[in-house]
Amino acid sequence: MIIMTPGRATRPYRKKKRAESEEETRRRITEAAVELHGTVGPAKTSVTDIARLAGVSRMTVYNHFPTETELFTACSKHWATLNPLPDPQCWQSIADPARRLRCALRELYAWYALNEGMLGNVLRDTQLIPALAEIMEGFWEGWVVEVVRVLAHGWSRPETEELPAALRLATDYGTWRVLSRAGLDPERAADMVGRMVEGTSGA
């Protein structure tokens, strides 16, 4: 018969509680960084600020995220889970390219409006932080390429260089921001930009 000592019984429990505590700390640090990125931007967010908001020490932040790349990766995944990017695959069932484009732009522009603070800060600071640029290359640019690919299908002149360029401009966050500042809501902005792309495509 094996006699279980108290030490043997509690050791796995302590390990489990320690792992849960570490996971909770990591979550608080990530959420603090995301909040600061959305308010002041990544370039103005210091480790000291993150630690203070998360209620931990600077060393704890570094223990969980030794590099900027690791922190930005965790932040982007956490934020994207709460604010999923529009899925280009949902637009593929719309056969008419002009109608598909308008539907996509209305959805995109509405999503940009909901997430203006974070998107504006991150896209601005991407030019200043190499580690952030590296993350955005996969997280953001890959999504943009897929959006343009889906929207480029079915136009009368898909082989022209102007169409992909026009679609890239039409779906760009900066384009929406200019139109929004001019007072256009997502639907009116989508209709106007849709007409412009149609002229480029030869539709």
Topology:
Layout lengths: L5 H34 L7 H8 L3 H7 L3 H15 L14 H18 L1 H10 L4 H23 L9 H10 L1 H9 L4 H16 L2
Overall pLDDT score: 90
The arrangement of helices and strands along the chain is HHHHHHHHHH
Report the C-alpha radius of gyration, rounded. Answer: 23 Å
Uncertain segments are none
The biggest beta sheet is recorded as: none
**What gross morphology would you assign?**
elongated
Helical stretch count?
A: 10
Strand content: under 5%
What is the total tally of β strands? 0
Distance between the termini: 83 Å
- The share of residues in helices is over 70%
SS-based class: mainly alpha
Structural summary, described in words:
With 203 residues, the protein is mainly α. Helices cover 74% and strands 0% of the residues. Helix 1 crosses helix 2 and helix 8 packs antiparallel against helix 10. It starts with 5 loop residues before the first helix and ends with a helix. The model has no long low-confidence stretch (mean pLDDT 90).
Write a brief caption for the model.
The protein has 203 residues and is mainly α.
Entry keywords:
203 residues; mainly alpha; single chain
